[in-house]
Amino acid sequence: MTEVVAALIWQGDKFMICQRPAHKARGLLWEFVGGKVESGETKEQALIRECKEELNILLSVGDVFMDVVHEYPDLTVHLTLFNATIAEGEPQKLEHNDIKWIKPSEIPNYEFCPADEEILVKIQEVHNE
Predict the structure, then answer these.
(1) Which domain holds residue 94?
(2) Rounded to whole angstroms, what are the CA distances from 62 to 28, 44, 70?
(3) Can you give the pLDDT at residue 119?
(4) What is the pLDDT of residues 83-95, one digit of tens each?
(5) Do 59 and 7 contact (CB within 8 A), yes or no?
């Protein structure tokens, strides 16, 4: 099983979503910023590193929002989503096709990676507008 971390970053009443590059697995689907945990690093360290690599931001990692296990045809992931805030920097598209800030009510307008579906339902329940 692959350990994966991601960040739920809020800005007012909107949260950040990132569009995967076209050439990668699940290309052009939307997701939360993050990536794989490397050996020897904590989940929090992995998330800080991934956000630096992908968005050139310094992240302040909070508590766990939720975690899910999802089986894709090519791999099984254990995804831990952390509440997080941007400590410094403006998000840049270093790796993603696009970055957007959306309200929970706008979730249905985007096609997300299947592993994120349960998380998106919870966001809509917690932040029912």
Answers:
(1) 2-126
(2) 28, 9, 23
(3) 96
(4) 999 999 999 999 9
(5) yes
